Amino acid sequence: MEQKEEFGDSLLEYACRKGFLHTLAEEYIIFCAESAPEDSQDEKKREKKKKKRFPNVAGFCRYFRVGEAEYACLCAKYPTEFDRLSAVFEDEALNSEVSPTILSAYLKKRLGYEKSGGAEVCDGQLRVIFDHDIMEDGG
After folding, report:
1. DSSP symbol at 52
2. What is the C-alpha to C-alpha distance for residues 89 and 41, in angstroms, rounded to an integer?
3. Whole-model pTM over 0.70
4. Along the chain (139 residues), what's the average pLDDT of each consecutive run of 10 residues?
5. Would you say 64 and 24 are in contact if contact means Cβ atoms under 8 Å apart?
6. Angle of helix 100-110 relative to helix 79-94, nearest 10 degrees?
7. Are 10 and 2 in contact (CB under 8 A)?
8. How far apart are CA 14 and CA 25, in angstroms?
9. Contact of 46 with 40, CB cutoff 8 Å
10. Within 13 Å of residue 35, how many CA atoms lie on the same side as its CB?
11. CA distance 54 to 93
């Protein structure tokens, strides 16, 4: 764990304290863009598929060798920095080529999107949703 010896804490905590967490996020995103999974041994098939890694919170943790618990502690300790990081991963997710099903699950689990009453944008139109159980509320 050279990171802890060099910085006195994790690289992510050091980056938060010094204000360059966004730089680490960009490093990870570039890594994802440049590395394609090696699914196939056949070069032609690999060129045809040419998928890039999907930048995400779990991958970010793996890349910088931190666990979910440490990530959560840092989120609580540096909420502004991690709010910005969350926006970066949301943007990456929304502009990715992943399926809508995976995108929806990711946004709900990792970025805190939950289905709740209110409004949502669908096909450029605002749709208001009333979460009301007439049987439970009595009318």
Report:
1. -
2. 31
3. no
4. 52 92 95 73 58 88 92 93 91 87 81 57 55 57
5. yes
6. 170
7. no
8. 14
9. yes
10. 12
11. 7
